[in-house]
Amino acid sequence: MSGTRRTVPRAGRLVDRFGRAHTDLRVSVTDRCNLRCTYCMPEEATFRPREELLTYEEIARVAGVAAGLGIRSIRLTGGEPLMRASLDELVRQLAAVPGIDDVALTTNGLLLAEQAEPLRRAGLHRLNVSLDSLREDVFERIARRRGLDRVLAGLAAARAAGFDAIRINAVSIRGLTEDEIVPLAAFCRRERFELRFIEFMPLDADGGWSDERVLSGREVRAILERDVGPLAPVDALDPGQPAVDFAWDDGAGRVGFIDPVSAPFCDRCDRLRLTADGQLRNCLFSTTEWDARAVLRSGEADGEVKARIAALFGKCVLAKRAAHGIGSPAFERPARAMYQIGG
Questions:
Q1: 307 or 202, which is more confident?
Q2: Cα torsion through 174, 109, 45, 324, rounded to 10
Q3: ω into residue 79 within 30 of 0, thus cis?
Q4: For 173-200, how does the pLDDT look when each residue is reduced to its tens digit (9 = 90+)?
Q5: Which of 155, 200, 251, 283 is exposed most, by the fewest CB atoms within 10 A?
Q6: Separation between Cα atoms, residue 154 and residue 127, nearest integer Å
């Protein structure tokens, strides 16, 4: 990757050695989940004790420091974030942080029907809902639990609550999801949901990932253009987004492709991550973490804590590599699986 190398962040901004400014923070609120998707979790999982998770007040405190450093968007993830009690209260706190312009949520949708309305009232702006199949048997094969009807009910409730920016995320796995591509596209075209296909990444807890199981975005796009209709490239809504977007020629919405394996987007990555147990990470595939929880619980004065958290952000950003390196001899799979990091 090309770009001007820097050794210190530019004034007030989290800029790494390769010139990438970071404005997006992904915050995991729990590692627990009510599904066991094969690309994310093991069938039997051990979760962090509650006392090891950041409180909502601690998360909001980190968000306040991050906003002062140039973070403008926060996305809540898990695990399944809606399993954390009173999540709307955290949304309310984050939406009130000066400098935070956008609060979003990624969810599997099983609990969304009950929570869509309070989340909307609390100030949640956008929703991403994971949905890999519209067939219950395939849904259950991937998620190792039933629940398709609850996801669809959650989507309907979100629409009724007034969410107009709803995105469907579908993971593409060779030998498993090829037949789900066209039905998902038809569903999203009909319901006016934005659809994104995501390549299978080496973050599954069972270690079943292999390059041969990656169904590339290019292949998915070919299936869509063959069986649904022409797609035309369009400008990204967000220059730092991981997806490459296309629009249907007939005007029936957009489709995005997130291709971290076949077409990495590391050169434009603008995101940092905070795990549910308070560790800062600069990449999904990072093998290093910075302990914000220890600073938050140090008992030091508020100003000192904020200064130390800001310093952790700076160290985290300056240690970011040029790229994740999937497929290279130097690639090292992280010790944590997706559900332990935050999707």
A1: 307
A2: 50
A3: yes
A4: 999 999 999 999 999 999 999 999 999 9
A5: 251
A6: 11
Give per-residue burial for 221-248: e unless 16+ CB within 10 Å, then b: bebbeeebeebeeeeeeeebbbbbbbbb
Q: Which residues fall within 8 angstroms of residue 52, CB to CB, at 6 or more apart?
A: 277, 293
Task: Of 60, 126, 127, 54, give the one whose Cα is nearest residue 99.
Answer: 60
Predicted pLDDT at 300: 97
- Can you give the pTM of this predicted structure? 0.92
DSSP one-letter string for 181-243 = HHHHHHHHHHHT-EEEEEE--S--TT----GGGB--HHHHHHHHHHHT--EEE---SSTT-SP
Provide the pLDDT confidence category of residue 73 given band limits of 50, 70 and 90.
very high
Nearest Cα neighbor of 192 from 150, 234, 253, 236 is 253
Give the pLDDT of residue 5. 33
Per-residue model confidence as pLDDT tens digits over 258-300: 998 888 888 999 999 999 999 999 998 898 999 999 999 999 9
* The predicted structure's pLDDT at residue 8: 38
Task: List the domain boundaries for the chain.
Answer: 24-341
Residue 194 CB coordination number (10 Å): 18
- Write the CATH number of the domain with boundaries 24-341: 3.20.20.70
**Taking phi first (over 0 means left), then psi (-120 to 50 degrees means alpha), and beta for anything else, what does residue 123 get?**
left
How many Å separate Cα 197 from the centre of its chain? 13
Q: Residue written as tokens 């066209």?
A: 182
Residue 130, SS3 per DSSP = strand
Closest to 272 (Cα-Cα) out of 71, 108, 83 = 71
| HSE value, Cβ hemisphere, 13 Å, CA-based, for 35 | 29
